[in-house]
Write a sequence for this structure.
């Protein structure tokens, strides 16, 4: 097996290169690298999943993660994971990373998402105010084997298709759509100039117009409604939804344990002193932005902060929403400061090399996304628990839209799968050796079918791991809070 930590790191654009500057190999040399990797690690080998008897108990891995999280929120995480095998999978990035570390890989590294399941893709507003489709979650990003992202994405489609009751044939078609799109897109980008790859992005509205005929009238109607709704999801919408007027002052609505103003959590601290400390933290975050965006942030005044429970896998990590106002009370800005803990990948692929986990997330996001939130930055602060915590900061809402996977018909899921496959390939092509990877993948569907076979087997394993969490609740190993 080619070693993913070092082999080919000098290929152009290889993420994690220790040389500082990539060697400029010829196209022919890069093609040969891919062919050599194919001989060493056959594409058919990616169907393999061999889990030894010494495989770590999946519940123990989740409990290990819980040790660094807010204790009273961990039962909510378990409750959300226990809704279905799919929601369990969303919270099981560490479990799968441990399993993927045992699987074959070509040795080529890219910047990877680390948690590339289908619900971590979606639409959001670009700085030039276009609605774009991209990966939108980078908590686990790190340099690593590109195959790991492909496998995590493909398995998520298999599990979602099972939840939707698709037939074996329909599930296979979805699998071939997502992996086939990844492979063909990587091969397309292998023939493109560097700048063309860097500028490539998936704009939602032109894509929707192109694909609407094949989606069916019901799917078109839902998509049109979702696009319109996405454009309303901004800071003004969040202001209406998350705040109320109290004695003439706009305040974040307390809804424990999901939303809790910081003054309620720290009622022993003088509010003026607290806001002064929070402003210092906001200033530290501003230093991570490019100057024009820092100037924009400085035009807003911090008004209130609250802790907010978000996601499935992220529940228990510290996440805060910050309400700021610009010219007046009708000019809000909601930011989200989310704790960045070490990536679940790092114990298997090595350190990312970033000074902090917040910086790791931001740098990884900039590498993988075609366009990123203008407020994306990071900070490290001393918590009230006496522990230093890394955070990354972004807008809470900026035209955010996500797919309604549970209502998708097979044809619509195939379209969505191709969108995700294209997007993941574009993200990997920006940071890795797209020519060598494309050469490794080849023009046939050998790799596609191997990943489809892997997805079927791993979806079975995911169901067994889900059942293990069900038993852990029944046996009293974990405390669960449902319906939140």
């Amino acid at each position: 097996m080619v070693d993913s930590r070092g082999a080919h790191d000098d290929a152009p654009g290889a993420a994690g290169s220790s040389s500082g500057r990539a060697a400029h190999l010829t196209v022919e040399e890069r093609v040969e690298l891919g062919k050599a990797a194919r001989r060493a690690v056959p594409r058919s080998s990616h169907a393999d999943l061999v889990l030894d008897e010494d495989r770590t108990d999946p519940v123990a891995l989740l409990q290990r993660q819980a040790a660094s999280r807010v204790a009273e929120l961990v039962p909510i995480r378990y409750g959300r994971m226990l809704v279905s095998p799919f929601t369990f999978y969303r919270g099981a990035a560490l479990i799968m990373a441990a399993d993927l570390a045992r699987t074959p890989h070509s040795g080529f590294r890219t910047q990877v998402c680390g948690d590339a399941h289908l619900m971590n893709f979606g639409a959001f507003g670009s700085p030039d105010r276009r609605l774009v489709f991209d990966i939108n979650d980078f908590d686990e990003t790190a340099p690593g084997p590109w195959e790991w992202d492909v496998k995590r994405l493909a398995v998520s489609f298999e599990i979602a298709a099972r939840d939707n009751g698709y037939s074996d044939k329909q599930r296979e078609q979805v699998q071939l759509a997502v992996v086939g799109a990844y492979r063909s897109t990587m091969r397309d980008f292998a023939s493109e100039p560097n700048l063309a790859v860097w500028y490539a992005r998936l704009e939602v509205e032109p894509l929707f117009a192109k694909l609407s005929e094949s989606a069916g009238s019901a799917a078109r109607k839902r998509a049109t409604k979702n696009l319109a709704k996405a454009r309303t999801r901004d800071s003004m919408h969040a202001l209406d939804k998350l705040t109320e007027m109290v004695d003439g002052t706009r305040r974040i609505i307390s809804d424990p344990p999901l939303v809790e103003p910081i003054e309620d959590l720290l009622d022993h601290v003088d509010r003026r002193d607290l806001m002064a400390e929070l402003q210092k933290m906001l200033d530290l975050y501003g230093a991570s932005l490019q100057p024009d965006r820092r100037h924009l942030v400085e035009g807003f005044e911090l008004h209130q902060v609250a802790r907010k429970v978000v996601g499935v896998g992220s529940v228990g990590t510290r996440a805060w929403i910050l309400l700021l106002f610009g010219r007046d009370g009708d000019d809000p800005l909601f930011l989200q400061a989310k704790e960045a803990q070490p990536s679940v990948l790092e114990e298997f692929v090595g350190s990312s090399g970033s000074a902090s986990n917040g910086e790791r997330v931001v740098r990884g996001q900039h590498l993988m996304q075609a366009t990123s939130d203008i407020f994306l930055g990071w900070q490290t602060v001393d918590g009230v628990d006496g522990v230093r915590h890394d955070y990354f900061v972004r807008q809470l809402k900026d035209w955010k839209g996500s797919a309604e996977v549970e209502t998708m018909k097979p044809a619509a899921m195939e379209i969505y799968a191709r969108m995700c496959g294209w997007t993941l390939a574009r993200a990997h092509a920006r940071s890795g050796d797209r020519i060598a990877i494309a050469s490794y993948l080849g023009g046939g569907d050998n790799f596609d079918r191997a990943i489809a076979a892997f997805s079927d087997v791993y979806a079975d394993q995911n169901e067994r791991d889900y059942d293990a969490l069900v038993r852990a609740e029944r046996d009293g190993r974990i405390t669960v809070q449902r319906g939140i």
Notes: Residues 1-19 have pLDDT under 50 and may be disordered. The two ends are 45 Å apart (CA to CA).
